[in-house]
Design brief:
Layout lengths: L2 E2 L4 E2 L9 E6 L4 E7 L2 E8 L9 E5 L6 E12 L6 E8 L15
Length: 107
């Protein structure tokens, strides 16, 4: 969140291009979650990290996001042995259009 007031709160959705947060897979591969080119991407994953299709991806805790929240599942793995890192495309568990209400957790 950016600004919290008595009756309103400004929030960043995962689909906000300025949102970046640490995330982890069920098998504990950790990387950075970003929204780029209209997709959620898990980036900065070392090449030796094992990724599995349809593996769940969770928040791993940061200033603005608690750990353990389901983000989605690995939908595509982008691995090139000549690169230092690999990445994955994440299919969101929910899309923003599916929300009617949002709870803001302050502590």
């Amino acid at each position: 969140t950016n600004n919290t007031f008595p009756n309103t709160t400004q929030v960043h959705l995962l689909t906000d291009p300025e949102t970046s947060l640490p995330a982890t897979t069920l098998s504990e591969a950790t990387g950075q979650l970003i929204f780029s080119h209209n997709t959620l991407q898990l980036i900065q994953l070392p090449q030796k990290t094992t990724l599995n299709m349809n593996e769940p991806v969770f928040t791993s805790g940061s200033t603005n996001f608690p750990d353990g929240l389901l983000i989605g599942h690995i939908n595509q793995i982008n691995k090139n042995d000549s690169n230092l890192y690999q990445s994955a495309i994440i299919k969101p568990a929910l899309t923003p259009s599916q929300f009617q209400y949002v709870f803001v957790i302050l502590d």
